């Protein structure tokens, strides 16, 4: 996990699906867990979704609060 990955979580919108347009950091846990069960997309989006799922699953969403405040 790198600083720029965390910054992308609070600035990158979901490009498709039910939550299209919602920031990756704001995706609900059940949606992130669905990806974990069925498979993350390939590429950077999948990597960021997987990171967000790990953050959410481990209760570490507070790590993103200072980054949100900067935006």
Could you name the key traits of this structure?
single chain; 71 residues; 4 helices; mainly alpha
SSE layout:
Blueprint: H1 3-9, H2 29-38, H3 43-57, H4 65-70
Q: Could you characterize the architecture of this molecule?
A:
The protein has 71 residues and is an all-alpha fold. Helices cover 54% and strands 0% of the residues. The protein contains four helices and no strands. α2 (29-38) packs across α3. The chain starts with a helix and ends with a helix. The mean pLDDT is 94.
- Supply the number of helical segments: 4
Number of E-state strands: 0
**What's the story with the biggest beta sheet?**
none
Low-confidence stretches: none
Distance between the termini: 20 Å
Mean pLDDT value: 94
What is the helix fraction of residues, given as a range? 40-55%
Please state the CA-atom Rg, rounded to the nearest Å: 11 Å
Beta content = under 5%
Shape designation: globular
Q: SSE string, helix = H, strand = E?
A: HHHH
Q: Pairing-aware structural class of the strands and helices?
A: mainly alpha
Number of domains: 1
């Amino acid at each position: 996990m790198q600083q720029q990955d965390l910054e992308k979580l609070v600035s990158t919108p979901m490009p498709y699906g039910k939550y299209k347009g919602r920031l990756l950091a704001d995706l609900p846990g059940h949606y992130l867990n669905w990806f974990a069960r069925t498979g993350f997309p390939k590429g950077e989006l999948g990597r960021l979704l997987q990171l967000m799922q790990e953050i959410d699953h481990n209760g570490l969403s507070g790590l993103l609060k200072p980054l949100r405040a900067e935006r």
